[in-house]
From TrEMBL:
Pfam families to which the protein is assigned, alphabetical: FCD, GntR
Record SMART domains: FCD, HTH_GNTR
Protein name, entry field: Transcriptional regulator, GntR family
Domain of life where this protein originates: Bacteria
Domain HTH gntR-type: 14-82
Keyword set, alphabetical order: DNA-binding, Transcription, Transcription regulation
Organism: Micromonospora echinofusca
Gene3D superfamilies per the UniProt record, alphabetical: GntR ligand-binding domain-like, Winged helix-like DNA-binding domain superfamily/Winged helix DNA-binding domain
InterPro entries: GntR_C (IPR011711), TF_FadR/GntR_C (IPR008920), Tscrpt_reg_HTH_GntR (IPR000524), WH-like_DNA-bd_sf (IPR036388), WH_DNA-bd_sf (IPR036390)
Molecular-function GO terms, alphabetical: DNA binding; DNA-binding transcription factor activity
Length: 227
């Protein structure tokens, strides 16, 4: 029996695979399939997406290769990341490359602080104040792990206040590296000589002083002598 639809009208295979990858990624980013959760089985995906088994298989394989999905023998396929860059960065994060990570952070954070001073909203300032307060409280109480998390949250809030979506996405991809460099810079303990006052950075952003905000952001990320 001839096909009901002219085969010439069907999109090429590569196009169907790319569309399927985009659909899978959209469901992951939208939270339908959470990190740590299992995605539907191959037959279920075929039915839900309206494409063939081979197309689904290739799309899933591409996202596995990208580090977004993980196939577990006898169990299924699971979401392990919402960000394709994060696994790549994590694989490259080694102790001997921490100096490079700091340089990348500096490139992101200095520009983010400058933009944040120009674009911050009342909501951004409230988020910065909250993150700063949490950071200071963790320091006062000597809670190392909470301090590292709060410090990372403050830097992330500065990037968010820049209102540059691409910058925020790229910065999110270095999340693991961010925590590692903060923890390393603290030497594993909250010692007074390692304290860095971030209130001046927040105040520069509040004042709309882009140059001062950039200077304050860069001051925390000066290269280590001899590194």
């Amino acid at each position: 029996m001839p096909p009901s639809v002219d085969s010439a009208a069907a999109p090429p295979r590569g196009h169907r695979v790319r569309q399927t990858i985009a659909q899978l990624r959209e469901r992951i980013l939208g939270g339908e399939w959470a990190v740590g959760g299992r995605i539907p089985t191959e037959p279920q995906l075929v039915a839900a997406l309206g494409v063939g088994r081979n197309t689904v298989r290739e799309a899933v394989r591409a996202l596995v290769h990208a580090g977004v999905l993980e196939c577990r023998q006898g169990s299924g396929t699971y979401v392990v990341s919402t960000d394709e860059l994060a696994p790549v960065v994590a694989r490259r994060l080694t102790a001997d490359r921490m100096a490079e990570v700091v340089e990348v952070r500096r490139a992101f954070e200095v520009e983010a602080a400058r933009l944040a001073a120009l674009r911050r909203t009342a909501e951004d300032l409230a988020a910065l104040d909250g993150a700063l307060a949490a950071r200071e409280a963790a320091w006062r109480d000597g809670r190392f792990d909470e301090f590292v998390a709060a410090d990372a949250a403050l830097h992330t809030a500065v990037v968010a206040a820049a209102h540059n979506g691409m910058l925020a996405e790229l910065y999110a991809s270095v999340g693991t590296a961010l925590h590692s460099t903060i923890a390393q810079s603290m030497g594993g303990a909250l010692e007074p000589e390692r304290y860095a006052d971030h209130s001046r950075l927040v105040e520069a952003i509040r004042a709309g002083d882009a140059d001062r905000a950039a200077i304050e952001a860069g001051a925390f990320l000066e290269p280590t002598p001899g590194a």
